[in-house]
Write a structure and sequence with these properties.
alpha+beta, 360 residues, 3 domains, four-stranded parallel sheet, Rossmann fold, D-amino Acid Aminotransferase, Chain A, domain 1
Length: 360
């Protein structure tokens, strides 16, 4: 029986284990938190992500290691990669952890991006605002997710003192994109170089946090998204599942960011696709044949943020699949989700509206 090490013990680790246990896999999680929701599905090594002893234990006690979040310290990942098989690789982490590296890779691969500038001082910011114009989005280059670590600049006054406001750390300024839709693509690449892609998903965020993700079957942006994703996968010699976020502007895509892991916008695949993103990630890192990525129905995923709603009204909805992450309620925290399946786009829209009403 193969033992899979996972750096991180959150809901993504939990869903990896739920997909892997039927494949005969066991899981060991490196996670400092005492209430890690994934730990009940395997064994936990309670240590910080850069703890050398913890990393070495994880390497010795497992057959290979993967990770469920992209802020695994790169130096720790490099050390781990000298001890065991780590997939995806260190370069993917290094690129995804720094928004400037990410944008540079996209440009190198001829993948369109919004105009951007590196910001290392308030003077840099003032000059970049003049060059790029307003509105623009100022972001920390490292860390920051779900709307954290960023500020929209609409006027010159918004830019005053913004470098200090975001921590006086390396930043990136990006031109504001008047997009039609926010789209994402879940891609997976095996050890043999085979790539497979799920249908693109259309996403809606509220206060910077993903609220709704809905795969769009036969979308006219599918081929363009796959072309961009394939370039990134091959450039990084990537193994595993990867989430790629885009802005659609009329008939072309601008790359926003990548996540070198399973991704929130792919949760619908658990019930809505022939093979879930979680199972395909495990198949890829194990060198097993990749599974089919076709959608089984019209589907949508609605995140539960802050607290879970009552379960009974949700499960009264036909096609509803409940996912509780076993996390304590907290404002802005992803604590669960529901997947909705339907044979009709119209009925699916009705189900989404019913779930949203239950969350108010």
């Amino acid at each position: 029986m193969k033992k899979i090490g996972v750096v991180g013990g959150g809901q993504l680790g939990q869903m990896l284990a739920l997909a892997g246990i039927p494949l005969g896999l066991e899981f060991i999680f490196l996670e400092p938190s005492a209430d890690a929701c994934a730990a009940r599905l395997g064994r936990q090594i309670a240590a910080e992500y850069d703890d050398i002893e913890g990393l070495e234990r994880l390497a010795v006690e497992t057959d290979l290691v993967t990770f469920e979040f992209e802020n695994f310290p790169v130096q720790a990942a490099r050390h781990l990669a000298t001890l065991t098989d780590l997939a995806p690789g260190v370069r993917a982490l290094d690129v995804a952890q720094d928004r400037l590296n990410e944008k540079a890779l996209f440009r190198e691969l001829d993948i369109p991006v919004a105009d951007f500038a590196a910001i290392d001082s308030q003077d840099d910011l003032d000059k970049a605002v003049t060059r790029l114009g307003l509105p623009a989005v100022l972001k920390t280059r490292r860390l920051g997710y779900d709307g954290k670590g960023q500020k929209v600049l609409r006027t010159r006054a918004d830019a005053e003192g913004a470098f200090e406001e975001l921590g006086a750390v390396p930043l990136i300024l990006e031109s504001f994109v008047p997009f039609n839709r926010e789209l994402s693509l879940i891609a997976v690449r095996g050890r043999d170089g085979e790539c497979r892609f799920y249908p693109v998903a259309e996403n809606i965020h509220i206060n910077g946090i993903l609220h709704l993700s809905r795969p769009r079957l036969h979308d006219f942006m599918q081929e363009q998204a796959q072309t961009h994703a394939r370039r990134v996968l091959e450039s990084l010699d990537y193994v595993g599942a990867l989430g790629f976020e885009f802005f659609q502007v009329d008939d072309y895509l601008l790359a926003n960011e990548i996540a070198p892991r399973v991704h929130n916008t792919g949760h619908w695949t658990i019930e809505g696709a022939v093979t879930s993103q979680f199972e395909n990630h495990l198949r890829a890192v194990l060198g097993l044949p990749l599974g089919a990525t076709a959608a089984l129905a019209h589907a949508a995923m609605v995140n539960f943020i802050g607290e879970m709603p009552a379960i009974e009204p949700v499960l009264h909805l036909p096609g509803a699949r409940w996912h509780d992450y076993h996390k304590d309620p907290r404002p802005g925290r992803k604590v669960g989700h529901v997947t909705l399946l339907s044979d009709s786009p119209r009925r699916l829209e009705q189900q989404i509206a019913q779930v949203e009403a239950l969350m108010r």
